[in-house]
Amino acid sequence: MVYAVELREVSKRFGEVEAVHQVSLQIREGEFFSLLGPSGCGKTTTLRMIAGFERPDAGEILIRGQRMNEVPPFHRPVNTVFQHYALFPHMTVFENVAFGLEMKRLPREEIRRRVAEALRLVRLTGLENRYPRQLSGGQQQRVALARALVNRPAVLLLDEPLGALDLKLRKEMQLELKNLQHQVGITFIYVTHDQEEAMTMSDRIAVMNQGRVLQVGTPVEIYERPATRFVADFIGETNFLEGRLVAFEEGYARVEVEGFPLLAARPDGLFPGQSVTVAIRPERIHVSLEEPLAFPNRYPGQIEEVIYIGTDTLFRIRLNERLALRARMQNREGTAPLAGYAPGSAIWVAWIPESVRVLRE
Ligand code: ATP
């Protein structure tokens, strides 16, 4: 299979720092693919190597099956949109978007047609004659996008393009970008440290840390079946409990955590006797006043803390001196504030085995 972009064991050092370590990725044609990870994990360096701004020390970069290592940036079928989009301030919107095509000396009529199409895609039709200073931050970012799209690249590289926008606008632009990508069908590779942003927009996500790719998967796979503790922690909230894998029974794994027996979905590649980390998402923990007899995993506890955040109520619940859990309950009509769920209340926590993920220590 020919991929839009393929990285084969690509590494890059800056002096002592190994910015990218043996990264392999296979990005499909038409995919919205995100590189997600904390600051300094190597996302930008990976993107810059695809763009051609950095040269890998080892490994191979292919675009549509062609080796790119020796190809300069301007000969690669890619365009990059940065957070700081650097529009030409003395040029109008039209001139900014047309600039690249004029450099290529395309016929005037074709330039006009392609610029009009790009501006329509980013919903800026009618603003052709404005200057960047007469536009909002979101509009300026759309001009930068149009400027990249007008070249019809095979792959569009985006490095935190929404980073400078306020939260509300950023959320709007996330959906717009996703729709836009769908319409144009161009492969997008998107760098972000914001897990919600990556989840909202991506077909697949590569989670990176310390120069390595830890997991590649759809948002659902990454959230529901995180491969490592780092991934479970970085994407959403998780309770981590240290325990020991005791046995496999009837398709489940029996784990012991601080004296509590616990049934979990059966993990791959782990065996009875091993020390493990158990991960449970707060929203998968049911909190109730009555003992929930239908759940195999149910434990009495005491509420330590209640935080009402509108959509949900967050709890810290103590099971014994050494064990406390965070739980999150959705507030429905008539349930908030929750009567009976106050600090000090005796309650039950429960969860189904499928909600428990057993990870290597
Ligand atoms: P951020 O979100 O903060 O941009 P990132 O995940 O994109 O982080 P990179 O910018 O790729 O991470 O950096 C990875 C590592 O390489 C960091 O430790 C960084 O300091 C280092 N690094 C990146 N570029 C250079 C450079 N030109 N010279 C020296 N070190 C660099």
TrEMBL record:
<keyword id="KW-0067">ATP-binding</keyword>
<dbReference type="InterPro" id="IPR013611">
    <property type="entry name" value="Transp-assoc_OB_typ2"/>
</dbReference>
<dbReference type="InterPro" id="IPR050093">
    <property type="entry name" value="ABC_SmlMolc_Importer"/>
</dbReference>
<protein>
    <recommendedName>
        <fullName>Spermidine/putrescine import ATP-binding protein PotA</fullName>
        <ecNumber>7.6.2.11</ecNumber>
    </recommendedName>
</protein>
<dbReference type="InterPro" id="IPR017879">
    <property type="entry name" value="PotA_ATP-bd"/>
</dbReference>
<dbReference type="Pfam" id="PF00005">
    <property type="entry name" value="ABC_tran"/>
</dbReference>
<dbReference type="Pfam" id="PF08402">
    <property type="entry name" value="TOBE_2"/>
</dbReference>
<keyword id="KW-1003">Cell membrane</keyword>
<dbReference type="GO" id="GO:0043190">
    <property type="term" value="C:ATP-binding cassette (ABC) transporter complex"/>
</dbReference>
<dbReference type="GO" id="GO:0015594">
    <property type="term" value="F:ABC-type putrescine transporter activity"/>
</dbReference>
<feature type="domain" description="ABC transporter">
    <location>
        <begin position="5"/>
        <end position="235"/>
    </location>
</feature>
<keyword id="KW-0813">Transport</keyword>
<comment type="function">
    <text>Part of the ABC transporter complex PotABCD involved in spermidine/putrescine import. Responsible for energy coupling to the transport system.</text>
</comment>
<keyword id="KW-0472">Membrane</keyword>
<keyword id="KW-0547">Nucleotide-binding</keyword>
<dbReference type="GO" id="GO:0005524">
    <property type="term" value="F:ATP binding"/>
</dbReference>
<comment type="similarity">
    <text>Belongs to the ABC transporter superfamily. Spermidine/putrescine importer (TC 3.A.1.11.1) family.</text>
</comment>
<dbReference type="GO" id="GO:0016887">
    <property type="term" value="F:ATP hydrolysis activity"/>
</dbReference>
<dbReference type="InterPro" id="IPR008995">
    <property type="entry name" value="Mo/tungstate-bd_C_term_dom"/>
</dbReference>
<dbReference type="InterPro" id="IPR003593">
    <property type="entry name" value="AAA+_ATPase"/>
</dbReference>
<dbReference type="InterPro" id="IPR003439">
    <property type="entry name" value="ABC_transporter-like_ATP-bd"/>
</dbReference>
<dbReference type="InterPro" id="IPR027417">
    <property type="entry name" value="P-loop_NTPase"/>
</dbReference>
<keyword id="KW-1278">Translocase</keyword>
<comment type="subunit">
    <text>The complex is composed of two ATP-binding proteins (PotA), two transmembrane proteins (PotB and PotC) and a solute-binding protein (PotD).</text>
</comment>
<dbReference type="InterPro" id="IPR005893">
    <property type="entry name" value="PotA-like"/>
</dbReference>
<dbReference type="InterPro" id="IPR017871">
    <property type="entry name" value="ABC_transporter-like_CS"/>
</dbReference>
